[in-house]
Amino acid sequence: MPNLEHPAYPSATLLHLESLVPCRESQVSMLLSIFGERQQFSFPSIFIYGHTSSGKTYVMQTLLNTLQLPHVFVNCVEYFTSRLLLEEILIQLQSCSSETEQTSHVPCDTFNDFVRLFKHAVASQELQDQTLYIVLDRAEQLREMEANILPAFLRLQELTDRNVTVVLLSEIVWELCRPNTGCFEPFTLYFPDYSIGHLQKILSQNHPPEYSADFYAAYINILLGVFYMVCRDLKELQHLAALNFAKYCEPVVRGEANERDTRKLWKNIEPHLKKAMQTVYLREISSSQWERLQRDNGEPGQLKGLSAHTHVELPYYSKFLLIAAYLASYNPVRTDKRFFLKHHGKIRKTNFMKKHEKTSNHLLGPKPFPLDRLLAILYSIVDKRVAPTANIFSQITSLVTLQLLSMVGHNDQLDGPRYKCTVSLDFIRAIAR
């Protein structure tokens, strides 16, 4: 039984629309109810919000294109000034109407000009007989424009006296977009994040024709089991699924396993998925580089340019500061004398070890350290004498800005600032090398 029903549209069209927007049937059904029939006046403005990659833009474009509703679709990041935005809407309006003659470019400097030109653009019978939809993607960018732009778009139906609905798509809630001067309240609609079941259903639809749907669904299940806790972005998961599927199929291609040997397939793909987790969201290498790495069974560090973190370039003393910060974070204070003094005196051997020191310091995480301890370790590991100049202190601030160090507490502490080193052992090894 179809989930989408509306008397104004054919059932076959709605069935096709439902197949194009899996796991978003309730939101599409709500939008259809708000839109009503083609010739009816719809709600003046609709605000749709949700996290990135929750289907807002895709659902809106698919809905308008499938039902062949006249619409204008503009990205507010691309058209970042009010003049560019208003002129782009008018240009797209001219292409919507077959009766309107293609005129030369008309400048539109103010919203008053836009209202006048908008009325002229929708004067054709074709656009007057049905609702026109203006969709503004990344609508939170409207806050950076003139103060009257957002309130005017919310009341565009009233200002133009035309059958028009403005749809705002945003990644933030309406309370953060609402102007301080007050405005017409739009109808708000929330797009929740996809659940793991939704992601499984959507990703499984893209299975290659040479493999069965069950085989690809099992692969997606493994992929989500590894990445779901760290990545919920549908686009990123689609990229990872396409990138690593060839490695998953290797035992089947070589004849070492069949499609039902999930355990053997998992053992083959597990180390490669762990490597892929190191670069989730970062896009540090191209897809061709990653596929070449998988074919050669190499380590991620073997490819030049794979990790921006292991190839980071820092000033000379910043590298020593970072090494000193790592030593201060992971070594107890009582070991400084033994490690960093040449004539530290006699060290009494003892088998006594505190209970918490039996655990590796790397498992316990970095400990905070004061600034004077950081500088003391720096002076001991640098060969030549380093004066505590403003240059050294500015480099410490730069490391905090780069999030290689983190400041613990507040700047106004009387006993001086305290820091933590936030980088890994592999990073420090690469810097020290």
From TrEMBL:
Major location category of this protein: nucleus
Origin: domain of life: Eukaryota
Entry keywords, A to Z: ATP-binding, DNA replication, Nucleotide-binding, Nucleus
Residue ranges occupied by any Orc1-like AAA ATPase domain in the UniProt entry: 21-167
Domain Origin recognition complex subunit 5 C-terminal intervals: 314-433
Its biological purpose: Component of the origin recognition complex (ORC) that binds origins of replication. DNA-binding is ATP-dependent. The specific DNA sequences that define origins of replication have not been identified yet. ORC is required to assemble the pre-replication complex necessary to initiate DNA replication.
Description of how the protein assembles with itself and partners: Component of ORC, a complex composed of at least 6 subunits: ORC1, ORC2, ORC3, ORC4, ORC5 and ORC6. ORC is regulated in a cell-cycle dependent manner. It is sequentially assembled at the exit from anaphase of mitosis and disassembled as cells enter S phase.
Name the UniProt record assigns to this protein: Origin recognition complex subunit 5
UniProt lineage: Eukaryota, Metazoa, Chordata, Craniata, Vertebrata
